[in-house]
Amino acid sequence: MFNKKKNNDKEENIMNPENTSENTAIENAENTDAANETEKAPELSAEEKLQAEVQQLNDKYLRLYAEFDNYKRRTQKERVELLQTAGKDVIVSLLTVLDDFDRALKAMETAADIEPVKEGVLLVHNKLKNILAQKGLKDVESISKEFDTDFHEAITNIPAPTADLKGKVIDEVEKGYTLNDNVIRFAKVVVGA
């Protein structure tokens, strides 16, 4: 009977979570960790804190500088590629006009009548103008317009044949063009004085 009571006490101790050695070990480990943390993190001096902060800021600066340097290189490379292929779209669209001119030259070699050759060249000219107009090219209207230095370049002045042509463009020596509303070539004109 006495032995039975001892066994019951042991079973109660095992079943009771407060008395288990496992719980005791966990509590001891938690207390030890808390004590170690206070020992491991001694108070840093103000100088050491500032040095750590300076080191961190220097690291951020170097990373940012390297990132910006890579960005500059990448955009420079993209710009060079863009310049090399900028006219590709226009040139590809003009290849059909070049083919038409080649056919016109072959037709001119064997042509007996000049009228069909003129019509063919006129068709190729119109096709070229239409393609360039689709790309944003426009003629600058000059004749009988007021002289405008934004679009015209005066080559010479001549006496105006009538009073209403004074200060206006009388003749156009070379056509002017705009590309997307920006002047790419000024019209060379003769102005009435």
From TrEMBL:
Compositionally biased residues, Polar residues: 16-35
Pfam families listed in its UniProt record: GrpE
Keyword Cell membrane set for record: no
Biased composition annotated in UniProt, kind: Basic and acidic residues: 1-13, 37-47
UniProt xrefs under Gene3D superfamilies: 3.90.20.20, Head domain of nucleotide exchange factor GrpE
InterPro entries: GrpE, GrpE_CC, GrpE_head
Chief localization: cytoplasm
Region: Disordered, residue numbers: 1-47
Matching PANTHER family: GRPE PROTEIN, GRPE PROTEIN HOMOLOG, MITOCHONDRIAL
HAMAP family associated with the record: GrpE
Record-stated family: Belongs to the GrpE family.
Protein name: Protein GrpE
Gene name of this polypeptide: grpE
